[in-house]
Design brief:
With 377 residues, the protein is an alpha/beta fold. The protein contains 13 helices and 15 strands. The strands form 2 sheets. It has a 9-stranded mixed beta sheet, with helices on both faces.
Length: 377
Amino acid sequence: MKQQQGTGVSHRMKDSIKKRQTQLISKRYGNPGQSVKVVVVVGTNGKTTTARYLNEMLLNDEQSTALLVPDEDTSLGIKRTQLFLRDAKKNNVKYAIIVLGFDDIRGYSLGSSLLETVIVTNISETRHATIVEQLESLKQLLETTPRYMVLNHDDESCDELGDVQAASKMSYGVHADAEAHIDDVKLYKKGSELKLVIDHQTKLRLATYLVGEANVLNLTSAVTALYIMGESILTVDEGAARLEEAPTNYEYITAPTPYRVVLDAAPNDAALQQVVATTLALAPRRTIVAVQADSLSEACIEEVSEKVDRLIVIDVNDFKPNRGTVERIVSPDAAVKLALRAARQDDVVVFAGSTFTTLQKDGRSYIHNAIDTFLQD
């Protein structure tokens, strides 16, 4: 028992030292996070697209912004974050928008920044962090008491974070009690439309070039943030239209095939479920999905297999036998060939996961090159 107590004290001491170190680094750069309005977008999924929507809508309203998005699967770090804020301060930027991962929260990358707004997209289980661990990180971030907070009413995290202090909070979602209520969603091959009712009185018709249910939520979270921050929402539709594409976010791959090919990062169960739901709503014929097993739970694989016509799983580390619509394979190249050979006219083939989105030396994603190779053979 004494050993456990000592370990706890040691952990708290290390955490306190780390916090103090980041505050000193922040001070070295002139505490820039206290001179600009810092907007943090955090969550398991959708935070990068939400931040880009918000950035484009603010720019469309002639507001000065700076946007910081981490590279795939990497953290920002205290130095990069503070340099970004220092430059934003130097350039008299009004809003500094930061996409923040949970590692950067735990590493106190924001230093002594004062937070104008925190947008929480969702909290979902991943192979790298449980919901509880992510919520603990979020509560650490929210100890700074942001001026505004935007929460996803459809996500369980909304209830978990309901007692967090903020000057003003607002929720969004399809739930009837959401203060920014999504209604009448229409999904198309080349975009999405929705009706949004804010505070039971302000009604907006919104459209986006981005496809799918996830992007409807991402757009809504950005509009909700604008509203709660007191910025104009009269031209948000024009701002949303500025974001014409989001690579690896339900991205259509241009290829001379009679079937459609979709690429999505889908890093976890919740993201893949949204991708599949969108595809099933739009697919004129069959749906063929190829995913990587290491980012998904077996329960998710089983559930998806019951919905789609064919599911190809890249399973390198924990190989299991084929069953039903699930076919397990060890090679990404073989998975691509299997999926594309099976596709027929009007089918939709989805490649989901970081294996397919990884950039190659030529700057193109793995799947773009793999499809080119397949078509040339």
